[in-house]
Amino acid sequence: MNEIEIRHLRYFLAVAETENFTRAAERLRISQPSISQQITQLEAALRTPLFKRVGKRVFLTQAGATFRKGAEVVLRKLDAACSAVDNISGLVVGRVDIGVIPTLHFAWVPSVLGEMARAYPGVTIGVHELASSGVETEIEAGRFDLGFGLVTHNSPNIRYERLVSQPFSLIVPSTSAYAKRKDIDLKELEGERLVMLPDSFDIRRAADAVLIHAKVHPHVAFEIDSIDAVLSSVIQAGMPTLLPAIVLRGRDMPGLRAVPLAGKTREMEFGILWPATNHVDPAARAIVAALKGSIKPAGRSRKRRV
User: Fold this and answer.
1) Which helix (H) or strand (E) element contains residue 195?
2) Which of these, 56, 136, 289, 305, has the minimum number of CB atoms within 10 Å of its CB?
3) Mean pLDDT of the chain, nearest integer
4) CATH of the domain at 255
């Protein structure tokens, strides 16, 4: 395997991402015959095809898909090592990949990117929206450096740091009779028509648990697999949804109001998901510092060691 060099991995990943040799060559600013030659060399070194050709497109074979995961980890570790050298001279540079759950994307990500653009222009940030379990999987695999998500404590390979706790609210159109209320008893939702996320979302399953505990059975009229579409449908259809109020932060939706639920209900814990390692890249630490600075004024974070 000593024939394999770093350039082979970069060329391989470019083809895997674009599914086209010509587009990969354009991305890398090399000729198409050159990249084809490099892939041929890589396949010869591994003694197995990594791509199958279908017309002008190429697709990963099973071996190629397996190799891709390892190649991504190798290049990420190389980039981290190069960044560590730069950091010795006081620079915060490099690439950080963040996994974020849909609930927190608008609430946390734009303000963090704004601060990082101003304070650390040498840092490249990749933001990937996934379900909570997907974020955890990618952090464990070493493909993500950080996660913004639910504090589940599901993985021993992840260090969870809670930043915010929020109960569910009934999110309603501002024209709804509910919008004028101080709070709403869950019992009032018996038979109520709701717009909800599907149960593939962790936040939906948690909402169902809240309703089951209260022995309340609303009618789910619409299930939509996008938080933005759910909120827009609340306005257009006039039906409420059950979500933490944090989903409204950062979204320009003045036609909605989050009405608290009466009494004590389950709170969702949101925070940082760190790889369980002794070394954390300075750029990742800078991102977390930016996040904490952006949510501190809201006064919703209750400090507790997790």
Assistant:
1) strand 193-196
2) 305
3) 88
4) 3.40.190.290
Domain count, the chain: 3
Phi, psi angles (nearest 5°) of residue 146: -150, 160
Torsion angle in degrees (nearest 10) through CA of 176, 179, 185, 188: 0
Which amino acid belongs to residue 232?
S
138 plus 170 within the same structural domain? no
Chain segment 171-206, per-residue pLDDT in tens? 999 999 999 999 999 999 999 999 999 998 999 999
Q: Identify the domain containing residue 46 by its residue range.
A: 6-71
Is there a contact between 198 and 225 (Cβ–Cβ < 8 Å)? yes
Residue 107 located in a structural domain: yes
pTM: 0.68
Q: How far is it, in rounded angstroms, from Cα 186 to Cα 197?
A: 18
Q: How far apart are CA 58 and CA 195, in angstroms?
A: 40
Could you report the per-residue pLDDT of 200-244, keeping only the tens digit for each? Answer: 899 999 999 999 999 999 999 999 999 999 999 999 999 999 999
